[in-house]
Structures are given as structure tokens and as C-alpha cells.
Amino acid sequence: MKKYILYVFFIITAFNAKSQENETVFFQIDFQDFFVKDTICLSINQYSIINNKVVTSDFSTGLTDAVVRVYRYKRSGLITIGDDSIKIKRISPPIKIKVSLNGRLIKYKINLEQGRYIGLSKINRVKNELDFYQSKNPFEYE
Model pTM? Predict the structure, then answer.
């Protein structure tokens, strides 16, 4: 019986490792520093992802709870925002994102060859402007 349980454990562990290996992030968008009760909307290509979400950056980490991950599979895709997810058709470049910050629309065209990790930080409280960061490595938050 112990051998059987051990065998099942190894099979499940191997399956989970293989599953996680295939779950690589195609790209990620982090809403980072200096947001204080700001209202955001986000669309990626034709998909509306975030609608009128109020965000505030964590003082210690410099990150809001609006972290968007896009996964791409052979025939489909998935976008996650925290615990929520949206199934989509397979997303392909060019990647166009639209961000609304307190009603001000800002558009970006993303070249993923420059990096798959996108960071947006608020820089001007009056004009509702954003700093755009792009990296080939995930951002580090403490």
C-alpha cells in the first residue's frame, strides 16, 4: 500500500511540474508606484481587461493589486488579474494596450523583443501621466 501511495505521489508531482513548465507568462503588466485611489481601465488588443478599478500602491512594495499576466497556448490564451481570469483566443503581436488613468486615455504599442515585463507608475497627480518601464526580467518588489 505504501508503494502504491508513493507511486501516485510521484506521478502527481511529475504532472504538476510538467504543467507548470508549460505555464510561462507571455507578458505581464504591473501597475506600480504612486497610485492613490486612482481609477484605471486596461485593454489589451481587443480585450477589455480592467474596468474602473480603484488602485492604491502599497507603500512598502511599490505595487498595486492590479497585476495582469497573459498566457499564450497553442490555440488559446488566458489573462489573469489576481484570482480572476479571462479565457481569450491566442493573442499575437503586435500588442496594443490602452490604459485609462482617471479618465485620461494613454496608448502603448508593445514590442515584446524589448521585454515581456511592463511596469506602469504614476508620475503626475495633476495631469495623470504614467512612466512606462519594459524589462526582459521580472520586476523585483520587496
Answer: 0.82
Amino acid symbol at 55: V
Query: Which cell numbers in the block locate residue 95?
Result: 500588442
Residues 6+ apart with CB under 8 A from 60: 142
> What integer pLDDT is reported at residue 125 of this predicted model?
74
Please give the C-alpha separations between residue 66 and each of 17, 51, 74, 116, 127, in angstroms, as whole numbers: 27, 11, 26, 17, 21
Dihedral sign (CA 131, 133, 138, 141) = negative
The amino acid sitting at 140 is E
Burial letters 14-23, b for 16+ CB under 10 A, else e? eeeeeeeeee
Q: What pLDDT digit, counting tens, does each position of 18-62 carry?
A: 343 356 899 999 999 999 999 999 999 999 999 999 999 999 999
pLDDT, tens digit (0-9, with 9 covering 90-100), for 66-93: 999 999 998 899 999 989 999 999 988 8
9's enclosing H/E stretch is helix 2-22
Angle at Cα 36 formed by Cα 31 and Cα 42, nearest 5°?
35
